[in-house]
Amino acid sequence: MTTPDRFSMDLIERPRRLRMNAILRGMVEETRLSAKDFIYPMFIEEGRKGRKDRQEVASMPGVHRQSIEAAIKEMEQCLSLGVRSVILFGIPEVKDALGSQAYAEKGIVQQAVRAAKKAFGSDLLVVTDVCLCEYTDHGHCAPVRGNEVLNDEGVAIHAQTALSHARAGADMVAPSDMMDGRVGAIRETLDDAGFSGLPIMAYSAKYASGFYGPFREAADSTPQFGDRRSYQMDPANSDEALREVELDIEEGADIVMVKPALPYLDIIRRVRETFGVPVAAYNVSGEYAMVKAAARLGWIDHDRVMMESLTSIKRAGASIILTYFAKDAAAILKDQ
Fold this sequence. Notes:
Layout: H1 6-11, H2 22-27, E1 38-45, E2 54-56, E3 64-66, H3 68-81, E4 85-91, H4 108-120, E5 125-130, E6 144-145, E7 148-149, H5 151-168, E8 172-175, H6 182-192, E9 201-206, H7 213-219, H8 239-251, E10 255-259, H9 265-274, E11 279-283, H10 285-296, H11 302-316, E12 320-323, H12 326-335
Parallel strand pairs: 1-3, 1-4, 1-12, 4-5, 5-8, 9-10, 10-11, 11-12
Antiparallel strand pairs: 2-3, 6-7
Helix pairs in contact: 3-4, 4-5, 5-6
């Protein structure tokens, strides 16, 4: 190999100078994760009191379906690590065609919200998922007629559900159903009931993804017929995501979300650059499960891949990351 003469070597740029020392690398780091970025998803199951409090989800190591009492203990652990927000998903004992337990005054999420706010007050931000798939006996996100998923009937129930969460003390509601017009209906319902200060984090660009499988096991929400492609977005579409986000902002969304995260980093970036509102991204169950499975087989370094993945989501433009890795990542950040 021929070595360039000294003069030409003196002229080249040397970006490596700022990579040679760990302290320097930290000083010039462009994207910094914080435990404050994370919202930790939790599955609260009705009827677990008096029997085993927690059951690990087989496809999601470290994630549990659990009682309210066990969830309160995990929330305390989150706070000790610096994770100050959770999002609650309810698993009722009884399901029906309308998902009526979603908006019941004593529904499992409503009970969990009251318990969390009693235990932690303003120290913990409690977000609630507003959807029907965990509550309907057919597994779709709105009532059905035959094989048709009914948009407007679903919107009315989601608005009622959001109001029940607000009355229970939720700090923010997050409609995830992808029915047209549901953000506007929820905003109007909350405002009319005196909850004009309650923010909405809308699942605005939610794709019909193959990465949701482990969640459906955890939440017992697999559709009993068909799929959700008639209301969740086509993975091939990008411009459509911007239209969905724009509509939700016009209807009153305070935060917009892209879901999943890693296969849609380009969407996160486009949303961030186009709209002047906070962007959330959901690092979903399939993304989590793949890392856990590959790490168990010794194929990857779990912590390194986890942190690299989360950093990529923030680098793409998300200011909020919903992730099952929240506790693991927060523990590493705390040590650092």
